Amino acid sequence: MSSKHPTPRHDQAPWASGSTAAGVAPPPFENELSTAAANEVVGVRSWRTPVVLALLSLVALALFGFNAPDNRVGFRVSEAGDLFRVPDLAVHGVVWGWLTVAVLVAVTALALLRARAGAHLPRWAVLLFGFFFVSGFLVWVVGSSRTPDVSLSGLLAGSVALAIPLIFGSLGGLLCERSGVVNIAIEGQLLFGAFSAAVAGSLSGSAWVGLLAAVVGAALVSLVLAVFSITYKVNQVIVGVVLNVLVSGLTGFLFATVLEPNASVFNAPPRLPRFAVPVLSEIPVLGPILFDQSVIGYLMYAVVALVWFALYRTRWGLRTRAVGEHPKAADTLGVKVNALRFRNVLLGGVVAGLGGAFYTLVSVSAFTRDMTSGAGYIALAALIFGRWNPIGALLASLLFGFASNLQSILSFLGTPVPSQFLAMLPYVVTILAVAGLVGSSRGPAASGQPYTKE
Amino acid sequence: MRLELQSITKRFGSFTANEDIDLVVEPGQIHCLLGENGAGKSTLMNVLYGLYRPTEGRILVDGSEVSFKGPGDAMAAGIGMVHQHFMLVPVFTVAENVALGAESTRGGALDLETTRRRIREISHRYGFHVDPDAVVEDLPVGVQQRVEIIKALVREAEVLILDEPTAVLTPKETDELLRIMRELRESGKSILFISHKLREVKEVSDVITVIRRGRVVGQTSPEASTSELAALMVGRDVSLTVAKDEAEPGECALDVSGLTVVGDNGVKLLDDVSFQVARGEILAVAGVQGNGQTELAEAILGLRERATGSVRLAGKELLGRSVRQVLDAGVGFVPEDRSTDGLVGPFTVSENLVLDLYGDDRFSRGPSLRRGEIAANARRAVEQFDVRTPSIDAPVQTLSGGNQQKVVIARELSRPLELLVASQPTRGVDVGSIEFIHEQIVAERDKGVPVLIVSTELDEVYALADRIAVFFHGRIMGVVGPGTPRDVLGQMMAGATAEEVLGGAQRHGHPHGTGHGATDPQDPNPQDPNPQDTKEQA
Amino acid sequence: MSATDAAPAAPGRQAAPPPTATTPGAARRTWTGSALQSVLAIVAALVLGGLLIALTDDRVVETAGYFFARPGDMVSAMWAAASSAYEAMFYGAVYNPNGNTLGQRVYPLTETLTVATPLILAGLGVAVAFQAGLFNIGAQGQLLIGAALAAYVGFAWELPVGVHLLAVIVAGALGGALWGAVVGLLKARTGAHEVILTIMLNYIALNLVAYLLTRPAFLRPGSSNPVSPQLAETAMFPKLLGEQFRLHWGFALAVLATVFVAWLLQRSTVGFELRAVGANPRAARTAGISVTRGFVVVMVLAGALAGLAGVAQVAGTERALTAGVAASFGFDAITVALLGRSKPWGTFFAGLLYGAFRAGGVTMQSMTGTNIDIVLVVQSLIVLFIALPPLLRTGRDRARSRRGRGSAATEGVRA
Questions:
Q1: CATH superfamily entry for domain A153-437
Q2: At residue C309, what are phi and psi to the nearest 5 degrees?
Q3: Domain C25-394 belongs to what architecture?
Q4: C-alpha angle A386/A387/A389, rounded to 5°?
Q5: How much is the pTM?
Q6: Distance from B532 to chain C by nearest Cα, in Å?
């Protein structure tokens, strides 16, 4: 779903920035009229970015600056069994806090200047701002806790683990939305995937069967979504919301009626194996993240790469993007719009199902009622925050996973920040994102619109 | 390739869009399908392109029957189509757009290099000047159209269907397109050219088939006279003339000066536009679609952000006020697209008749609507404007286009106006309603209201205008009299100032259109080629 | 003056927009069809729910073991399982024939009305937003914030009888309105999509209330559980039918709210504006209606209604603020509004129906052991079936869904 309705074409001057396009037609008039030049382009001022950055800088000033912990903050890089030792990272809370504030203010000032000139903030500046805000926050929050020392690799590895279902969920959503179908039902797909994996895994005694069942189960949810929203053109958001309720009710009912009374038969799935690649997994920080994962963890990296490649480098991807942007154009070129959308929605279910399996085959070895607890909605947020791009969705999911991991680690360290506020973080960040921090976050133009031949 | 349609009939429910249509396109021929909007041309083309299935009839390619399940089949049979509204993905490059649906792949990955090469070949052969890596939304309309043609040629189309290809082009771009069409014909392609523009049709066609109300009403050659073709097209002798007296302009009422509008992407859509409209006169704004006319109307109404300059109505500044305040200042507004901007489709006729008046004391008391008054108003308006509706409580979207437009006009004229701004007041309206609507507009003028008409249709401009302002790329090329010849307007619409076209002595065609008006008596306009115009100006 | 000489007789019009392809019958059919369609959808959902109950019943599973020997056993076991569950639900929702007194016999009906109260109020909040073209998934968050504020005024302030309750009601409405206003303002100022905003704000509200319930100001003295002090007696809705029933005057508030929303939408200038914004925002804007203001107004209104649902919870039934005070009323409200086709009285009756399901579900769970989650299944199936065209609609109606994306939300409601 696009946060902005696409501007109708006649609102834009079609010859806009025509000068940048090579190979423009011969001049419109032989006798070279100066007045016949294309329209002039001037800057359009938007204060949204500087305002949001200024607000965040103020937060940083109040917390990381004035409230900086006056002690050393340590981040352990190497763990006991690591291949080699890397010295720990340590900064002083006050120093890093004020450094952060200085950088944030500088970037905000730059944004202000750019906005006055009607230009966008360069990407590096946004990234710089993001890095310093996150690190400043981390230093502040860790430094303020009773034990101002944290294991970086534990922090990151835990984040990845929490992010895995989010990544699958947002990639599943991405497959739908890039082809023009809004998928609010990610939550339902994750939940039903988790449920199916638990039941099938328990009954068969094989985690692999469970994995397969998760994929099939989530694809079933997708099937309903596809039939209603593509075949019958029912509003996609409504179908998604209702599907989430349906799955929650159905799995809740079956859990109470069938699974709970016979847990050993129906709700004791075996775990998926975990492989640690020898040597590589002992690299500090990166080792546990990249080379010590469950099957689903490795699959995650593969699927991100695969989706990225498929979307931007294959025939299927070209057609998918076309169908999400301008279905009619695709139709006139012989692309079967609704068939492609249907297939992609099913595929999205398959991917989301893998995320669902993570819950019952990797994370916990049993299904519980509503165990995904809103992860599907965070995945949706990650999809938008990641600008409908697989890599972006991956990074956004990691950020959200990081936030929730921080929450549990901090409660362990004894932090002054209430855990509820950390829990809110992904949602606040998403609101900031859709409200303008990420600027022109433009979703697929045709997302949410059913396609009907005239 | 020889393409033949045999007694094609296409029905939608009870509505027959095409009935018993026979048509043959010979190889290397430009065959024109001439007809009014709504005559069933586009339906027929969609049948031919596999987007619709014919209810009855056969399509033959080189003598053997074909059946198209979709555009893919039509393309495979050698039929390519250039749609009226381009079928291009704006965020894709030219190469991606051309490749779409006919992608070549190498080892599973997309191979755009082949496509790029083909684009360069075709572009070179026909003189298209298209860069395969340009992003389509950055290209001028004329170039986008050539991308559409390339799409068809890459797919080895032998028959090209061009659906109203000149609607969005300047006269110059149109000439370029006609050149391309001739060149394609020389290379043995056949072209089915759909248009309602007689000049182009006569200029380029080999054969002309005229359709009206879904039926073929005649086939003729380009030697046929314009009036003959027009008569065939509309079925009766047409005159678009409105019986109207000469304008009696009063004092200047609307004074637009230095109006500049910047779009969301930073493009100046209107650039320092100045003109005046006097009481009791109609100023028509002419120009190819998309040259700033829409933005002018929207800026006056207060719909545009980033509008600078000044719009004064009877001395009061309108710019910077809300739409509500502008309406309250007595501006009546007929938007160019009634279904998106003028009417709320699911609302009833009576609700739509008070869409911008519901807050008026006549129709509300405090926070409550006066439903009796609203209904009475609707009955009055339906009667007065002859709106054909089953009931005043029918959703307005169930009415025909002409009747919908009458609802809009009736609403805007149902209160005393200080200014009437009407964009495309008769677009998509049947001939009978056109006359009626034109009469209403002239009547408003005769009451002494200043009227600003925006129309891309030169016939309408000529029918209504007391003066004509020509827009190009957001600037006024000049303000000229109503008798200015068509070719002069055409050149102005392509970016020539009135001075350049008519000679240096022309005063009122100042590049920035510092409009003269009836209040501008020092302009005798001696060089105007049209004596009638001179008389009118003086 | 005549322009004939310059204008050849070429009457062709340029670039006509596609004809507005709406069949006159379509609108009427959605209306006449709607009642029958709703009934069919409810029946179909109940049948499917019954099947689910039957298939998970122990006795049915047992008889299935010898299905081929005596198929009749399984069929009758299935019938018994489903019918006894629904019977229990009916007893719990409408009328209990086993009651000794009249009061006991009609007690279930009053329970239905009690449970329906927050559903109706929050459902109205979703419905008005729909009417303005906004998809308010945030009733849950608005309800929670409303409940929190109302509860605070209820237990922390001391005010005279009457005034106190009024203050609680106003506080709840304000809290919800505030939460809705955030959505309206952000949507109006930045164009952010309300579906995302409301989903996120639900979670923020949930965490915020959880946080408040860790603060001394909100905690019950001497308790470490996340429960607020009890609301003062003066802050509570009086019972509507005497002390033996839970039904309180909050229900009357729900009826009043329905009347008000019906008046607002159909008979007021504000409602005219909101509906115009919902049905065609561009035309509304051209007609001088501020679309952005409309978004803010309708979200304030929607939030206030959901906030009143929160009041009904804390000052009607629960008497204290807990993290679970909203139950899932805010989400159920979406299905309520959908079933009610976002019409005020439609929403009212849909709220009654879902209230009956909830109230009956509790009895069902205790009497036959059927898990109450079946109610969620039935509710969502009803909405899906209502949207399912093959049940009644013909292909021609589907053409309507092509129209305007601005009205996407309302379109779906109609569908």
A1: ABC transporter involved in vitamin B12 uptake, BtuC (1.10.3470.10)
A2: -60, -40
A3: Orthogonal Bundle (1.10)
A4: 80
A5: 0.83
A6: 8
